[in-house]
Amino acid sequence: MHADEQDALILQRRKKLSAIADLGFELYPRKFEFTHTAPEILQKYSRSAPEELEAEKVRVRVAGRVMTIRPHGKAGFAHLASGGARLQIYVRRDAVGERDFELFKLLDLGDIIGVEGYLFRTRTGELTVHADRLSFLAKSLIPLPEKWHGLSDVEIRYRQRYLDLMVNDGVRRVFERRSRLIRAIREFLDGEGYLEVETPMMQPLPGGAMARPFVTHHNALDLSLYLRVAPELYLKRLIVGGLDRVYEINRNFRNEGISTQHNPEFTMLEFYQAYADYRDMMALTERLLPRVAQAVLGDLECEFQGHRISFRSFERLTMKEAIARHWPPAAGPAPKVEDFAEPRAVFRWIEAYNRSAEKPLAFGDDTAPGAALAELFEAVVEEHLIQPTFILDFPLEVSPLAKQKSDDPNFVERFELYIGGMEIANAFSELNDPCEQKDRFEYQQLLREKGDLTAHAIDEDYIRALSYGMPPAGGEGIGIDRLTMVLTDSRSIRDVILFPLLRPEKSS
Description:
The chain is of the alpha+beta class. The protein has an 8-stranded mixed sheet with strand order 6-10-11-18-17-16-15-14, sandwiched between helices. It starts with a helix and ends in a 20-residue tail after the last helix. The protein has 2 domains: about 5-140, CATH 2.40.50.140; about 165-325 and about 380-495, BirA Bifunctional Protein, domain 2, CATH 3.30.930. The radius of gyration is 29 Å and the shape is elongated. It contains 16 helices and 18 strands.
């Protein structure tokens, strides 16, 4: 719709608003007393026969947004949308009176009204409110969009989510599922004896993840602060303090790129358990996610982007095993696990991969073998991990907060869970040796000095907390947004975040 055309329609609707005022209606009343919501009416009376409704004369007061209008002379039908349901109303001039019928004739799609009347069924069998009184509640001055189609409309959907929710019923269902997902997680963890806590969103040091932070400033204290990239170090301080099982459903902020799987502001579940390790976290995850799927879907299987995902079983592979299994045939014979025994051997396999890769991997001369192995894994394996799969045993260089494996100190006790080709969860046996943790932080500091803005900062207070003694512990983070994507078959993370970050709107 062109801007001048829309301006003309807005002017027309403003004139109608004035006409409604002339009828004596309050234009934006403070309240409407209702007896039922549209979903309640449909749920309770959808199976009632016409004879039952006629005998009972069920009276209702219901409100909603006008989504269709079909006038027929001295009568007319309309549908009201409310609570994710649509309910038909029938308005006759001799039933509602001249004033209210004039209001009905002045209504536009998108207006919000209240209706009082009784329930009946039309000749076609549709449950309908036979109105005997109308109330005007709000005017939609801007016309609702007629259709949503094409790529250009996708941005409008994200930018004007209120419109998206009005006209696309499936969008509401996505966010209802997201809410059930979070509720199911809370119920499960509460049942496991975990305590829900809250930790700071503004922190003097960005910690708990290798990510670039957002910077802000506290004027009164003249203090530079960072929006948290993860709550991990604060949650582990609570483990030190004797809260043995804690969790937080938290907003994190990472000053990084935007993609179908990344939004700078996102939601994570993080939980920590004293006297446990990463294998305990795997076992807990294998109990948690089927419970969540059942609560959200009523099933242990779901469709995601053309794949049938099952939460009945979880595969476990080491990072090296996964590379060997999913090695691209075009890159030549696949490596065996033992081919990575010598750390720098990974660079030979990267050379083999690069010879046929569309996007060859590039590294500096000082790149650590472990970091190179992790990059090779992402390039070769991630997209193939459709069914729930734990990838175990990550290189030390990319895991500054995890405990080393006793049989191979170049690797740590860490896993990532993949579903639908995406990383869904990250967990490890927590490093609780303060001296070792300080050494790891100092190594990360060297990376920062070389220009790696995602390297972990040195957190002296966290080292001090560990110095008081932290019990062995397992910790895990699960991406709420990506898990919601899987359980709602959503292509983009923006589809499961009500208000995703977008570029500023271009002025017309």
